């Protein structure tokens, strides 16, 4: 029966993060294909509206990741540079780090 199958599958998925990620990824792909403009379930205008609303959590998640990662990277660079006692090495490392950030951001 469906109830037993659901219970068995939920027991299999629980505790396996990699499987949860794969299931969510395939569910997202299927949803995107179904409600996309070429999916045929929605008109192109409605598909655009729905996709804009569904994109909001993704944008929020990426913004939160940036709010966490950027300060961690800056703090790691500062900590690494201040651990050096040699002034010439510190100057060289600071120049390379500054140029790296200048050209990659």
Description:
The chain is an all-alpha fold and 105 residues long. It has a domain at 55-105. Helix content is 84%, strand content 0%. It is built from 4 helices and no strands. It has helices at 2-13, 17-35, 44-82, 87-104. It is elongated, with a radius of gyration of 23 Å. It starts with a helix and ends with a helix. The mean pLDDT is 84.
Overall mean confidence score, pLDDT: 84
Instruction: Tell me the β content.
Output: under 5%
Query: How would you describe the oligomerization state of the chains in this entry?
Result: single chain
Taking pLDDT < 50 over at least 5 consecutive residues as the criterion, the unreliable ranges are none
Helix percent reads: over 70%
What's the total helix number? Answer: 4
Q: Report the biggest beta sheet as strand number plus sense, adding barrel if it closes.
A: none
Question: What is the 3D form?
Answer: elongated
